[in-house]
Amino acid sequence: MTGHGISRNSYQDARVLITGGMGFIGSNLAIALVRQGARVTVVDSQVPGCGADPANLDPVRDQVQISTHDIGDADAMRPLVPGQEVIFNLAGEISHVNSMTNPLRDLAINCAAQVQFLDLCRAVNPHATILYASSRQVYGRPQYLPADEEHPINPADYNGVHKHAAEQYHFLLRRQFGMRTICLRLGNVYGPRQAIDQDCRGFIDAFLRIALDGKPIVVFGDGRQLRGMTYVDDAVDAFLRLGLAGPEAAPVYNAGHPTPVTLLEIAQTLSEIAGAPPPQLAPFPADRLSIDIGDFYQDTEKIRRDFGWIPRVGLREGLEKTVQFFRSQQKRPPHADPHPVS
Amino acid sequence: MTGHGISRNSYQDARVLITGGMGFIGSNLAIALVRQGARVTVVDSQVPGCGADPANLDPVRDQVQISTHDIGDADAMRPLVPGQEVIFNLAGEISHVNSMTNPLRDLAINCAAQVQFLDLCRAVNPHATILYASSRQVYGRPQYLPADEEHPINPADYNGVHKHAAEQYHFLLRRQFGMRTICLRLGNVYGPRQAIDQDCRGFIDAFLRIALDGKPIVVFGDGRQLRGMTYVDDAVDAFLRLGLAGPEAAPVYNAGHPTPVTLLEIAQTLSEIAGAPPPQLAPFPADRLSIDIGDFYQDTEKIRRDFGWIPRVGLREGLEKTVQFFRSQQKRPPHADPHPVS
After folding, report:
1. Are residue B143 and residue B224 in the same domain, yes or no?
2. Within 13 Å and on the Cβ side, how many CA atoms surround B279?
3. In sequence order, what are the beta bridge partners of B181?
4. B123 touches chain A (CB under 8 A)
5. How far apart are the C-alpha atoms of A59 and B228, rounded to whole Å?
6. Can you give the CATH number for the domain in which B132 is found?
């Protein structure tokens, strides 16, 4: 066990807490941490639409402690936080579209709950390393590409505004109280345990759902939009590396695949792998166009330099593993919304 | 009356709404607008500690319509918003210190209420010009001086985080719905109707209160910290100019006096004017030091270039007018907190 934020070299016997640990990335992270010998506590209130699925933790069901409290419920959370060496703070709403139709809900989940949770962390465990799952979404429509961590903040929807505010809460803990908080701005992450059966999420969820259904993927616009597609194991690897960071870690790191691919390429590759018909192009619906940000991919030189992080899984391999996972789970969507955003 | 956001040349007969219109800047703005012939509605829920004082509107009491609703109360606000040509959106909490001790309160006032209010504006009056009173506080400790509008966002307290989120809400309305929203990042504003009798506000409030009491002002640190002290008439002038802006107006403008003065110079000048003993220096208390941002003043070339705004009132003249106002009001503080922040 480490005490006052001293770095350790592995997760063997490390006590870690994962908020949002039933979600897509959180559950993959929990599984990886169990395999590395960590003593994992997962907290997830299973807010509808935020990606939580208890089945995501099936592979490690008996090896993690699971709590279903809201992280904003300080009384319920108080026993769970002390003694955790690393807190992977992934709880949150990620839907861009939902945030536009219900910004107060997004504010409550991404800001109010985080304020309360972080205040508790400060009070009962100020020496933990806290990693926050932020998003490329804080940059909005890019002014230059690839976007590095210095890119201006200009979110295109309420979700991005609130994720940025939550980042700032983490910065405040660092600046005001000397806590070790680090924000990861994730790129477009995809892979096993993605919540493809929940509406109003990212385009890749819908692409997967449609391709697994054997239908043609509909790509909005001309399909040439660029994205940095990040396989979930690579995102998990970024969290694992930064969880072992010493005090030299910066407040914020990009973690998205730096080599962009087009939406059409993604759709075509996925259709091939899944045996679905070729993708089709269609005009952008107005509500999606208004929060679309055009091309986007991140500069990840900073996390490579400081922590040696390089994504190892390319698009085809990642999509193959993803399709294989969902086929093996026979986890299929009850119905499909073919029109999500990027 | 103008219809769809067409610019007008004066406020004669213009219908305007001022949120936070009983507060320091809001009330000065209301008085100026009445004098320019506007038909003024003030809304202010008089949240304790946010600077509201019904007496601030005494000079125009019979010439303004006053509502005491919370701007986040959509049902109550719905009748007040339609038909307003300019909405001066000044409602909010501005205390940096209070935001650190009660961030959820700051979040509710500065974010949740604004989300609801702006959603109402979009629904019932999308053609109004909306001016938001933001703050230099969004920049935090400056990376260079003077700070222009491109300076990185790095607030030093919850209040700055939430003011920035509220700015972003205004940007979203502009980007998503083509609304004419403009954010003014005010500098340190001072002058008549400042809430000097409320604790936990800015240093100038405390300086004024102490000097008016005939006591020595205590300046933290070495007194050499720089600030751009903006007399309230100049801040009001910025709002008035931008309220008449056409669609060419940018999303955000600095509006703080670009010529900095030291805290010691402010204290010395004020003591002289008020006939108080000379200021004293004292070490920074820890809770104030942690959110102190060092020197700060703004580059205001953008608002000068686009709208001809130049502050006209220098430090001595402004402080003289301010002291004269409070002496004439015989409005004196019941007690003094000598240790506020900048």
Report:
1. no
2. 28
3. B130
4. no
5. 60
6. 3.40.50.720
DSSP label at B279? P
B109–A contact, CB cutoff 8 A: no
Is residue A275, in this structure, part of any structural domain at all? yes
- Helix H or strand E segment including A117: helix A113-124
Q: How far apart are the C-alpha atoms of B216 and B207, rounded to whole Å?
A: 9
Q: Return residues 160-219 of B near A (CB < 8 Å).
A: 161-162, 164-165, 168-169, 171-172, 175-176
Residue A3 has pLDDT above 60, yes or no: no
Number of separate domains in chain B: 2
Predicted confidence (pLDDT) at residue B147 exceeds the cutoff of 50:
yes
* Higher-scoring residue by pLDDT: A6, B273: B273
Q: Contact, A119 vs A175, CB < 8 A? A: no
Report how far apart, in Å, the C-alpha atoms of B162 and of each of B100, B111, B113, B183 are.
12, 6, 11, 14
Cβ contact A165–B169 (<8 Å): no
Q: Are residues A139 and A287 in the same domain?
A: no
pLDDT band at A247 (very low <50, low <70, confident <90, very high): confident
Give the range of the structural domain holding residue B201, as residue numbers without chain letter: 190-228+258-296+313-329
A171 with B157: Cβ contact below 8 A: no
What's the mean pLDDT in A220-232? 94
The reply to whether A111 falls in a domain is yes
Largest CA distance in chain B: 56
Yes or no, beta carbons of A111 and B115 under 8 Å apart: no
What's the complex ipTM? 0.91
B chain contacts of residue A116, beta-carbon cutoff 8 Å: 104
Q: To the nearest whole number, what is the mean pLDDT of chain B?
A: 92
Residue A1: the pLDDT is 37
In a domain, B307, yes or no: no
Looking at residue B63, its pLDDT comes to: 98
Place of tokens 């507060």: B23
Nearest CA in chain A to B111: A107
Q: What is the dihedral of CA A256, A257, A262, A265, to 10 degrees?
A: -130
CA B303/CA B130 separation, integer angstroms: 16
Measured CA distances, A159 to A214, A275, B278 (Å): 31, 34, 51
Minimal-distance CA residue of chain A relative to B141: A175
C-alpha separations of B42 from A199, B69, B77, B80, B138 in Å = 42, 10, 11, 9, 26
Q: Rounded to whole angstroms, what are the CA distances from B280 to A257, B196, B219, B333?
A: 56, 20, 6, 21
Nearest residue of B to residue A118, measured between CA atoms: B103
For chain B, say whether A102 makes contact (Cβ under 8 Å). Answer: no
Where residue B199 sits, what CATH number does that domain have? 3.90.25.10
* Chain centroid to CA B171: 19
Q: Which residues of A touch B166 (CB under 8 A)?
A: none
